[in-house]
Design brief:
This protein is of the alpha/beta class. It is built from six helices and five strands; from the N terminus they run βααββαβαβαα. The protein is globular, with a radius of gyration of 17 Å.
Length: 200
């Protein structure tokens, strides 16, 4: 007798187990800032990936998958005159995303966010096809990650969800950041509960 896949037992929207579904708590934002989340196909299959939940909250967002041998990723369509494209990159050499940086160009923003560990995102950011026009930016130093499911080896590393929430807090408003972070903390609590781990 076969066993059911763990993925089949998860909500298609929030990706939590049905009894822990948090869809009713997901805020909805229709913002000028456009999010393009880039994930490797293997990373997308992992239930510990936090990025996809953000897509449910941001209407002006999309997921693009990397790593399909028969469907090559190309981000060159993001190179349009009416929008400013930023690539969130975890590298010391990139300019810090802050208000002063944003005031240099008042066009609405498309922000590309690679989903993965610190090192995976750094490698991916340098290799994404068709993204040469984008401006690399990094987040200012902030609180340590609250994601307790995966071990973060870099002292300033945060989950993809946290990175997006902080970026939107700078680009859009602190209210958007705070409400996204509230959803994130709920996901953390529910995930730890499902694993039988008490939150510290």
């Amino acid at each position: 007798m076969g066993t059911r896949s763990k993925r089949s037992l998860r909500c298609s929207r929030c990706r939590m187990h049905p009894e822990l579904c948090i869809c009713q708590f997901i805020p909805r934002y229709d913002l000028a800032t456009r999010l393009i989340l880039v994930m490797h196909r293997r990373e997308y299959a992992k239930p510990t990936s936090t990025g996809p939940l953000v897509l449910a909250a941001l209407t002006n967002s999309e997921l693009r998958i990397q790593g399909h041998p028969d469907q090559l990723l190309d981000l060159s369509d993001l190179n349009v005159a009416e929008r400013r494209t930023l690539l969130l990159y975890p590298g010391e050499g990139a300019p810090v995303l802050n208000r002063a940086f944003l005031e240099q160009d008042d066009r609405p923003i498309s922000i590309v966010v690679p989903d993965g560990t610190w090192s995976q995102s750094a490698r991916m950011g340098k290799r994404l096809p068709g993204i040469g026009h984008a401006e690399m930016v990094r987040l200012p130093e902030g609180p340590r990650t609250e994601w307790k499911i995966r071990k973060e080896v870099h002292p300033y590393g945060v989950s993809t969800f946290e990175a997006i929430a902080r970026a939107f807090g700078i680009i859009e408003s602190i209210k958007v950041q705070q409400e996204l972070e509230s959803l994130f903390r709920l996901m953390v609590r529910k995930t730890l509960l499902a694993r039988g781990v008490a939150e510290k």
